[in-house]
Amino acid sequence: MLKRFFLLFSISLFLFSSQVFAQEEDLIINANNLSYDKERNLMEAEGSVEVVYKDVTVRGNYILYNTETERIQAEKGFLLNYGDISIEGQSLDYEIKNKTGKASEVRFGYQGIELSGQEIELETEKFNLKNASFTTCDLEEPHYHVTAREIIFYPEYGWMVAYWGYFWLGRFPLVPMPTYIYDLRAEEKAQRNLPPFPEVGSNDEDGTYINERLAWHISRELSGTYSISYADKKGLGGGAEANYILAEDSRGNVRLYGNAKDNLWGGITHWLSFGEEIEEESPYIAFFAPPKYRRYELETTLSHRERINYQRVSYYPNLVLRSRKGWILRKEARYDAELMAGMVKEEDNVELARGGGNFVFYCDLPEIALGDMTPSVSLDSRFYSNGGKWIKTTGGVDLRKSFSENLSLGLGYLHYFSVEGQSPFNFEMYRFNATDRFTSDLFFVVGETGVGFSASYFVDTWEPEDLDYSLFFRLHCYNLVVKYRSLRREFELGFSLVGG
To answer: What is the DSSP letter of 402?
Structure first.
């Protein structure tokens, strides 16, 4: 007969002290058979056992509970549930109130990722798995998986680190990985997880290149990558970078790279975000989650000889304050604003102080049969310590039509009202032309393949400014991304893991 045991009732049943009752009052145990050894402070439950403490539930066929140490032991299989996590395994030794303990032969899923391990140490903020593996493929025989000597998983942040592992494609181990970091929320941060394969691409400056990046990790607050690369026109290169987190809205990146031709370059950038969380719109929503930001962001960069638009540029430093999706009088009338100030040096050119700002006002009009129409006007002004200035005022309209989740079309027109002066920096004038332009983009999905195309044409001559092609191959649990910018002659091949 099923017995239901409340520790409130245990005062009279087992003569517990009032102090023990105060510690145990939220605990409930259900079982087919239940007994208590008062001398050992040990409760034994057998048959369809369920132990519930607030948001934590442990189920199993045989469970021991020590009322003095508040530890649960399951030796014949268990299922541990709390929050969005369900851990299944063979044995469990667990402090149910502190949510800490250890278990063996475990497996569990979380937000599209499947993990398993011979052993696991459970802590409040992280799980440490030994002789473990993970995959984002939901097939019984996954297309790929990663094995590792150790995996540290931070469930609150959706962040995972694997040490001394291999990337397996089917049954074949392809790539050894000393350290691999996987962020379940990378797309929301407008970032990509580090691919397990080398990055391949080409452009006029470097020629064909290959870049192999590997991760390193000290803690969730301090991690990064190191890399080795080779380019036809630059020779052997490499470098390293570190990502640090001071708080969830205060983070930064430190980097140093070099190659045989360009010598060394690097910098440090810190982002301080505040305000409410907002979500950017993306035409590629069928393949990638739209990124999320805070409304305000202060970006501070101190850099030396980093490449911007194929020029070597140094910031000593540069500060940018951004505001995204603000609104005036009504929420349909929105604006994006940016203020900047800093000292800028362009190699083989000039070194000047620079300040200015950019303001874009746009209005989200009610949807019509043709789609969503968004008119806009903008002011972009920059002033330089040599007395120069570069001020541009523009107006335009964008039209976007989503025919379905798998098909969207965008059209746009941009008109220059005025252009006064010009920038003394080549990287700012890169491919600039103050001519009205017509833009278009198309994205559609056929089966598991996404195709993107975007184009920009100068209206006075109808000559193309940019023609960009993108292919997104979703192979159930990972994406292959091919990008080609034909007029700039830039090619990039990427790889990313996704949920199956």
So the answer is: E
Residue 7 pLDDT: 42
Question: Positive or negative CA dihedral for 146, 151, 153, 159?
Answer: negative
The total number of residues shown for the chain amounts to 500
**Residue 8 scores a pLDDT above 50:** no
Terminal Cα-to-Cα distance of the chain (whole angstroms): 43
Least confident of 119-123, 329-333, 349-353: 329-333
Tell me the C-alpha distance between 265 and 307, whole Å.
Answer: 8
Residue 255 vs residue 35, higher pLDDT: 255
Mean pLDDT of 144-172: 91
Structure tokens at 216: 């390193």
- State how beta strands 78-82 and 351-363 pair: unpaired
Alpha helices by DSSP H, 316-385: none
Q: How many CB atoms lie within 10 A of CB 16?
A: 20
d(CA 44, CA 3): 12
- Mean pLDDT of all residues in the chain? 87
From residue 264, give the alpha-carbon distance in Å to each of 73, 260, 315: 57, 9, 15
Q: Would the pLDDT of 439 be above 60?
A: yes
pLDDT at 4 over 60: no
Mean pLDDT calculated for residue range 147-172 = 91
> DSSP letter at 196?
S
Cα gap 44→72, rounded to integer Å: 10
What is the separation of C-alpha 285 from the centre of its chain, rounded to a whole number of angstroms? 15
User: Cα separation of 373 and 493, whole Å?
Assistant: 33
Rounded to whole angstroms, what are the CA distances from 459 to 93, 391, 412?
A: 71, 21, 12
The model's pTM: 0.78
Task: Yes or no: say if 320 and 334 are a contact pair by the CB < 8 Å rule.
Answer: no
